[in-house]
Design brief:
About 40% of the residues lie in helices and about 15% in strands. The protein has helices at about 10-15, 20-25, 40-50, 60-65, 80-90, 100-105, 120-130, and strands spanning about 5-10, 30-40, 70-75, 115. The protein starts with a strand and ends in a 9-residue tail after the last helix. Bound molecules: cytidine-5'-diphosphate (CDP) and magnesium ion. Cytidine-5'-diphosphate (CDP) binds near residues 52 and 57.
Length: about 140
């Protein structure tokens, strides 16, 4: 089964949107394969956002992502990597389609409610940051 790494970011987590966001994935038939609540530290943030180190928004992004608890999830199903990014919507809610997670819950293009892996390679790399094999269920 294809898997993707989702984060319900500190903004959406604090506002109590986890249940509604999970429902948006589950009603598409996707499965929750792993879940945990944690607060990121700078080291996890640097590992997760390694491709963004040095970008102008990086320090603000780390500040936000380490500021409060978030929920990490492994979501599984057919074509889940592409579909979850579609369900989440564009990075900036101003550009996100109606009914997407970011249109509904994101404040701006930084505090934007959710993360999802963008490729099979990213998914494999990102899942390992948060979960051991024992913590992930198959089907
Ligand atoms: O999350 P997504 O893959 O849609 O976007 P990204 O371009 O990979 O950027 C990763 C994250 O960095 C975004 O989700 C934002 O939280 C943050 N970001 C930002 O704060 N300001 C930007 N100009 C671009 C991204
Ligand atoms: Mg990205």
């Amino acid at each position: 089964m294809e898997k993707t790494l989702v984060l319900i970011k500190p903004d959406a987590f604090a506002q109590g949107h986890c249940g509604d966001i999970l429902k948006m994935y589950e009603r598409e038939g996707f499965k929750i394969c792993a879940a945990k609540v944690l607060t990121m530290d700078k080291k996890i943030a640097a590992s997760h956002y390694v491709e963004h180190i040095g970008r102008p928004y990086y320090d603000g992004l780390v500040e936000f992502m380490t500021s409060a608890p978030l929920m990490a999830l492994v979501i599984g199903g057919e074509n889940v990597i592409k579909r979850v990014r579609e369900i989440n919507g564009a990075t900036n809610p101003a550009n996100a389609a109606e009914g997407t997670v970011r249109k509904l819950y994101a404040e701006n293009g930084s505090k934007n409610a959710v993360h999802a892996s963008d490729s099979p390679e990213s998914a494999a790399r990102e899942i390992k940051i948060y979960f051991s094999e024992l913590e992930i269920v198959e089907d």
